[in-house]
Amino acid sequence: MKWLHQILFLLLLASAAASCKKFLNVEPADRTGSNSFWKTRQDVEAAVINCYGFLFQKFNDFNSPVIPAVGDMRCGGIGGSIASGQLGQGFYTLSQNDLSNTTNLGVPERYHLNDIDDWGPYFESIANCNITLAEIEKMTTLTDTEKKQYITEVKFVRAFTYFYICRLYGDVPFYTQPYDKTPRPRTSFITIFNTLIAELDAVKDDLPWTATNPSDLGVRACRGSVYTLIAQMNMWLAGFDKANQSKYWKDAAEKCVAVKNSGAFELLPIEETKRIFKGKTKESIFEFELNRNYGNTSLYVNLGQWMTHSPIVDYGGNSDLYFVRPLMERIYPPNLPDKRRDTWFYLPYSNNQTFMFLKQINVADPTGYWSFEDNLMVFRYADVLLLGAEALANLGSNNTEAISMLNTVRTRAGTPLFTAGAEDLKDAVFWERQKELIGEGHRWYDFVRTGRVTDPNQIITPMTQDQFDRGAWTWPIDAKARQNNPEIVLNLYWIR
Questions:
Q1: Which residues form the RagB/SusD domain (predicted)?
Q2: From the CB of residue 89, how many other CB atoms can be counted at a distance below 10 Å?
């Protein structure tokens, strides 16, 4: 951390001149001096875009399956051929939530799963945001409206980074000032989230509900994405700060209902799945762009890339991985109609590698060393509707609105609507999120924050309450985090 801020400022200046359309590539350009930077609106635009790039680089670095590994694989219910060399004993170990030796899981090295232990790049992103915010505040060539919008965008990126790493590692050091080299201990994520919610609440209306430029839809923060992030943090807090649950549920519900009432977002037909996950639609609230025209594709970033075979890709007759039949039957009961099951899966109950997951199949190159360009979907409108329904159901104060939001998603899916008394509303919303968001990196976190991760009737890989309390829901932290910060205590549950 001591060297981090010094390097980042120079790197920011060097990379910020890159084309806006290529903002996901954090590459140095020919501008390394501050004398020629932070002068114009174009300089600020480049710097703000670069904030997104620092974060996305971690998600797509080395084509590592960060999102599916931490968000879906840990839930269990994933099978594959150990002999194939693709799944390996390591992916099975991961699906059992055994992270006691992530440096030697047995997963082929090219998948870089051991890199998930390294939280350093996330703090590079945070430091970059802190510097950018400080510089924007000093700018005199921006209008008040421009300055507010840019500041809100960067605060969103910083808050999202903290949201992501706190769900992954638990408590983390909290930095909000530029060039702060202080070795800080880990701060309670409850404190961090409450601080960030207050910060975002103060600026949440400084952006339009959605992007006015179609090329920015979803890939730039908007009011909808700020409201959604606040709601997400509230729902996470409700799971851990139980004394204040009602407050968190109320705020989350208000934010989700506001997004719905804005009229800025809509659900596209399930039949348009490829367009939804190619991105930049009215269903998208926040996403990271993958586009081969800009030099951005991935091999492993989305879970669907592990669960396809010919004729989708030129890769033989088997998928590397598949969802096991007990999981598929639990999420998508065979006796109930569901367009998602019929559209997103091939041989959904096969329980073998003939299975395919067809939710993310925008293939950039189907031959040879194939790659995909489905955008990395972070928040979708369906997610917001179901999150709002969950918050309202927990409050019990407006079940009519909760049922309406739930049934909006079910109507699009062509599955039976919820009717009071036929199902428990809270359970119905939870399992609807499992159906709707499968493969998008939400499932593990939904199990953790709701406490269902300890219920063997709910999750295939449960943990005991004692294991949960000792931090079994977190991811290990690499010991090198202590090299420049002796204040850091690692996640002790994973230290053997």
A1: 351-494
A2: 11
Domain parsing of the chain, residue ranges: 1-64+112-206
Q: Which residues of 232-253 are buried (b: 16+ CB within 10 A; e: fewer)?
A: bbbbbbbbbbeeebeebbbbbb
**What are the φ/ψ torsions at residue 116 (nearest 5 degrees)?**
-65, -25
Q: What is the spatial distance between Cα 280 and Cα 305, in angstroms, rounded to a whole number? A: 20
Q: Which two tokens stand for residue 224?
A: 């909808």
CA of 159: how far to CAs of 125, 238, 323, in Å? 11, 18, 33
Percent of the chain with pLDDT over 90: 64
Considering 85-89, 115-119, 122-126, the range whose residues carry the highest mean pLDDT is: 122-126
Residue 2 phi, psi dihedral angles, 5° rounding: -65, -35
Q: What is the pLDDT of residues 160-206, one digit of tens each?
A: 999 999 999 999 999 999 999 899 999 999 999 999 999 999 999 99
φ, ψ for residue 127, nearest 5 deg: -60, -40
Q: At what angle do helices 223-240 and 144-169 cross, to 10 degrees?
A: 30
190 residue type, one letter: I
Measured between alpha carbons, how far is 111 from 319 in angstroms, rounded to an integer?
A: 16
Query: Which residues 6+ apart lie within 8 Å of 190 measured at CB?
Result: 237, 240, 241
- Tell me which architecture the domain covering 1-64+112-206 has in CATH: Alpha Horseshoe (1.25)
Average pLDDT, the chain: 86
SS3 321: strand
Band the pLDDT of 21: cuts 50, 70, 90: very low
Rounded CA separation 284/224 (Å): 10
Euclidean distance between the first and the last CA atom of the chain, given in angstroms as a whole number: 26
List, as own/partner pairs, every contact residues 458-466 make where C-beta atoms lie below 8 angstroms and the sequence separation is at least 24, other chains included: 459/75, 459/76, 460/75, 460/76, 460/77, 460/324, 460/326, 460/327, 461/74, 461/75, 461/76, 461/77, 461/95, 461/96, 461/97, 463/97
**Residue 160 and residue 239: Cα distance in Å, rounded?**
18
- Burial zone of 482 (CB within 10 Å; 0-12 exposed, 13-18 middle, 19+ buried): middle
Beta bridge partners of 420: 423
